[in-house]
Design brief:
5-stranded mixed β-sheet, 15 helices, 618 residues, 2 domains, rod-shaped, binds adenosine-5'-diphosphate, 47% helix, Heat Shock Protein 90, alpha+beta
Length: 618
């Protein structure tokens, strides 16, 4: 019952709080990991957004450079030159131009000349109808046009559209592993992304760019300059146009040399990546089929369609992406794995520590509970042990005092019984008092050089009469020469008496006790107390030396005892630098051996060995 209560307290006070703490620790480490991942994706997304804006700015700068050239080439009233030569002059002046063209606002193409080059011929083939307002095509323009405009031309004139808009379905060419949107779903309070902010989660992979179906005249409207991009036969074409101040009725334009433009963008890419990130990521400019056009780390390889994060560049390069790849994609998961492993280990150690701690505490509690029970037994045992001799003493002394016992033999018998019972009482009280003194560390010893054989002989003599009267065959086998030891005579006598008393108590019907003293030859004297009695039950050989422990308790055996005799005997033996051990006696019975160090033959009485000197100080 007590144990169950203790276990309950233990579970609620130790195990439950520990488990809750472990769970909280696990959660916080997982959150930490998530935070690290989120920070990394925010940093990378920021990089992709910034570089995409830089590419846009770079193309915008090229467009302004084009505008300046047009103003110079076409708008100089001092040296008017025919618009038909614009293609050639522009290409000579500006390497980004692949084809220069001139369109009048009333729908005539003044340049390039059809027969000159392949590029010019192709340009006219693809763009003539669009530029002259006879064909509606899908274009991406960096100005706000309505998403889709219905054809304004009669159905008969409706152009054959070379670009199939459904083929692209306006899906993004890449599927980023991390998207800013995802982060915003998890943390709605953060800044909305630049493009997809309003898109529902399932549309994450849809491009933010919407083409407009229009023709050239309508597209430029009243604007002076601009740019447009369109796909023809799945190839991207980028056109700049400008109406110079001097000749606003003409739109001068250029089809951009895309490889040259990409080269210029690519040249600036490595320098645009923050040095701190340079080794950890690779930035790629991907075309509309997710093919790498330029890399910040030449030779880098990756699954191009699966960047870590990506940003669409915008209308200037529709469906092109600025993508960021992790140099070591396993690093994040590896870090997560290491964290989880560390966490698992910490938890395992924690659980093991709790387990071991619990086991130790429970073992100690068990010991305490057992000790408490033994103490209770001890009190009843001691009371019983005190009562029995007192009853005999009182009864026989009353008989003698009453004068009713006339025979001298009988008188002597009663007196002997009284003497034996008094000795038993004295021994018990001495044991209890000595035990209390030992517990408090107050037991004092008076060591002197003495002959152990002599001491054993004396002590045996005091017990002999009583033992023989009780029917024991008591044998003493002592050496003829002295065995010198440094000892407290009273303490050693108490040890020997306790062992003899036990031999008597636990002998049962086999009333035979032997004392055997000898020099073991290894500087030790050994006194063995042998009986042919009950013996110590197996498994209790060491326990019998614990305080209050009784292998044969009162209830089962009817043998009175306090469970202190052997505890005390061992303590006293150890205080002399010796030891007491138990071994079963061959042929039945017990053998208790008291071993004591021999004192040097010529040593003085004061010369106690080190352990003795220490014990003497107690
Ligand atoms: P007690 O007062 O019970 O005898 P002890 O400390 O002297 O206490 O002994 C502890 C236990 O060791 C005893 O209860 C008994 O079970 C066992 N014991 C001691 N001496 C003997 C012996 N000579 N033969 C068998 N058992 C013994």
């Amino acid at each position: 019952m007590a144990m169950r209560k203790i276990a309950l307290v233990f579970v609620t006070a130790v195990i439950l709080p520990s488990l809750v703490l472990a769970w909280l620790a696990a959660r916080s480490i997982r959150d930490q990991q998530f935070l690290i991942e989120r920070q990394q994706s925010i940093i990378c997304q920021g990089l992709a957004d910034r570089l995409a804006a830089e590419v846009q700015a770079q193309i915008e700068a090229s467009r302004r450079a084009f505008t300046n050239r047009v103003e110079r080439l076409a708008g100089d009233p001092g040296s008017p030159s025919p618009p038909s030569s614009f293609d050639e002059r522009l290409r000579q002046d500006w390497p980004l131009a692949e084809v220069g063209f001139v369109v009048s606002l009333d729908g005539r193409i003044l340049a390039p000349e059809r027969s000159t080059r392949d590029e010019a011929r192709n340009f006219l083939e693809f763009n003539e109808r669009f530029l002259t307002g006879r064909e509606l095509v899908q274009v991406y323009a960096n100005k706000g046009l309505p998403p889709t405009q219905q054809p304004v031309l009669p159905a008969a004139q409706a152009p054959a559209n070379r670009y199939d808009p459904t083929a692209r379905a306006q899906q993004r060419s890449v599927l980023p592993q991390q998207s800013l949107q995802q982060l915003q779903i998890e943390e709605p309070s953060s800044q909305p992304g630049p493009q997809n902010a309003n898109a529902p989660p399932q549309l994450q992979n849809v491009s933010a760019l919407v083409p407009s179906t229009t023709e050239f005249r309508r597209l430029i409207g009243e604007d002076r300059s601009g740019m447009l991009a369109r796909f023809v036969e799945n190839r991207l074409f980028l056109l700049f146009w400008h109406r110079p101040a001097a000749r606003p009725e003409l739109a001068f334009g250029a089809q951009i040399n895309l490889p040259e433009l990409v080269r210029q963008v690519g040249d600036r890419l490595p320098g645009a990546v923050d040095p701190a990130l340079h080794n950890d990521v690779c930035v790629a400019l991907l075309d509309d089929n997710a093919r790498p056009m330029a890399l910040s780390r030449p030779g880098f390889q990756a699954v191009w369609k699966r960047p870590f994060v990506a940003t669409e560049i915008g209308e200037v390069l529709p469906h092109w992406e600025l993508a960021v790849y992790l140099a070591d994609p396993a690093k994040l998961t590896q870090a997560a794995r290491v964290t989880h492993l560390a966490l698992g280990l910490v938890l395992a150690v924690l659980v093991a520590a709790i387990g071991v701690g619990s086991w130790l505490i429970i073992a100690d509690l068990k010991r305490q509970v057992r000790l408490a029970a033994q103490k209770t037994d001890f009190v009843s045992n001691v009371s019983h042990e005190l009562k029995t001799p007192l009853t005999s003493i009182r009864m026989f002394s009353e008989l003698l005092a009453g004068g009713g016992v006339a025979e001298p033999d009988r008188q002597r018998l009663y007196l002997n019984i009284i003497a034996a019972e008094t000795a038993r009482l004295t021994r018990l009280i001495n044991n209890v008092l000595d035990f209390a003194r030992l517990q408090r560390g107050e037991r004092k010893y008076c060591f002197e050089r003495c002959d152990l054989a002599d001491l054993v002989r004396e002590t045996a003599a005091t017990s002999r009469l009583h033992l023989e009267r009780s029917g024991f065959h008591f044998d003493c086998d002592l050496p003829a020469s002295p065995l010198w030891v440094a000892a407290d005579r009273d303490a050693l006598a108490q040890v020997i008496l306790n062992l003899l008393s036990n031999a008597e108590k636990y002998s049962g019907d086999q009333k035979e006790i032997t004392l055997r003293l000898a020099d073991t030859g290894r500087g030790m004297a050994e006194l063995r107390v042998l009986d042919r009695g009950l013996g110590v039950p197996p498994g209790c050989e060491e326990k019998i030396f614990e305080q209050f422990f009784r292998a044969h308790d009162n209830l089962n055996s009817g043998i009175p005892g306090s469970g202190l005799g052997l505890t005390l005997a061992r303590e006293l033996a150890r205080a002399h630098g010796g030891e007491i051990t138990y071994t079963p006696r061959p042929g039945g019975g017990s053998c208790f051996a008291l071993r004591l160090p021999l004192a040097p033959a010529a040593a003085s009485a004061a010369g106690a060995p080190a352990p003795l000197a220490k014990a003497a100080a107690l």
